[in-house]
């Protein structure tokens, strides 16, 4: 039911909405735009050079190094923010593939494909992960790992997947296989298509329930 305001109240609301932004609000908006610009510049710079410095990132953003440090106290803090941004993007893409629909094995393949597409868009991720603490790396993986666990447990409950091993071990093994595939591509020993096929095959064999 719509709330009805008196003419006087509507006038007050209109005046409030028409008020210019306060200096504090403008500063906050400027800070948010600067932080977003730094993050975009970091991603662009890392694509070109995974070990890009804060100075390079600041130059790409059109800001000073001091401004970058005002938002991110260290290069590691900036790398953590990059990982968080990518992790959320991948989690949204995974959610879009309907994790609860279809055989678990097919869902796992779709999940792997989405994750691999993220690696192709952000090939610097292994270098970024190496630049942060193991705890931060695990924390940023949590969004994706939680979704992977859900699919594996569903496959175990339907008899599609192996139940002799803990889910956490299976997840760790899949993550390790994904990292290995990425490292092989990065080193030039595998092309992306071959690595994707190998990763799918290895993960499905790892998860497959034993036949009678």
Kindly describe this structure.
The chain is mainly α. It folds into two domains: 9-73; 77-207, Tetracycline Repressor, domain 2 (Orthogonal Bundle). It has helices at 7-18, 23-48, 54-61, 65-71, 75-95, 104-121, 125-130, 134-157, 167-186, 192-207. α6 (104-121) runs antiparallel to α8 (134-157) and α8 crosses α9 (167-186). The protein is elongated, with a radius of gyration of 23 Å. The mean pLDDT is 86.
Quickly describe the structure.
By secondary structure, this protein is an all-alpha fold. The protein has 2 domains: 65 residues; 131 residues, Tetracycline Repressor, domain 2 (Orthogonal Bundle), CATH 1.10.357.10.
Layout: helices, strands, pairs:
Layout: H1 7-18, H2 23-48, H3 54-61, H4 65-71, H5 75-95, H6 104-121, H7 125-130, H8 134-157, H9 167-186, H10 192-207
Helix pairs in contact: 2-3, 3-4, 5-6, 5-8, 6-8, 6-10, 8-9, 9-10
**Helix fraction?**
over 70%
CATH class bucket of the largest domain: Mainly Alpha
Helix/strand-derived category reads mainly alpha
Q: If you compute it from the alpha carbons, what radius of gyration comes out, rounded to the nearest whole angstrom?
A: 23 Å
Shape-level CATH architecture of the largest domain: Orthogonal Bundle
Number of strands: 0
Distance between the termini: 61 Å
Task: Quickly count the domains.
Answer: 2
What percent strand? Answer: under 5%
Largest sheet: number of strands, sense, barrel closure:
none
If you average the pLDDT, what whole number results?
86
The H-level CATH homologous superfamily of the largest domain, spelled out, is: Tetracycline Repressor, domain 2
Supply the number of helical segments. Answer: 10
Report the principal-axis shape: elongated
Unreliable residue runs = none
- The ordered string of helix (H) and strand (E) elements is HHHHHHHHHH
CATH fold topology of the largest domain: Tetracycline Repressor, domain 2
């Amino acid at each position: 039911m719509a709330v009805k305001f008196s003419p006087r109240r509507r006038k007050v609301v209109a005046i409030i909405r028409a008020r210019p932004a306060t200096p504090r609000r403008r500063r906050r908006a400027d800070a948010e735009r600067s932080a977003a610009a730094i993050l975009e510049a970091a991603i662009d710079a890392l694509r070109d050079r995974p070990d890009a410095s804060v100075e390079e990132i600041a130059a790409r953003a059109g800001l000073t190094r001091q401004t970058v440090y005002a938002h991110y106290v260290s290069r590691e803090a900036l790398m953590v923010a990059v990982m968080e941004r990518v992790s959320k993007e991948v989690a949204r893409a995974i959610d879009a593939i309907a994790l609860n629909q279809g055989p678990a094995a097919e869902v796992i393949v779709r999940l792997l494909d989405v994750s691999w597409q993220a690696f192709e868009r952000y090939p610097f991720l292994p270098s970024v992960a190496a630049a942060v603490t193991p705890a931060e790396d695990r924390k940023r993986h949590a969004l994706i790992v939680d979704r992977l666990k859900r699919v594996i447990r569903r496959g175990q409950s339907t008899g599609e997947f192996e139940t002799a091993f803990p889910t956490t071990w299976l997840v760790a093994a899949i993550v390790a296989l994904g990292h290995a595939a990425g490292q092989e591509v990065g080193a030039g020993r595998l092309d992306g298509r071959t690595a994707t096929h190998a990763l799918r095959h290895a993960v499905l064999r790892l998860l497959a329930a034993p036949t009678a």
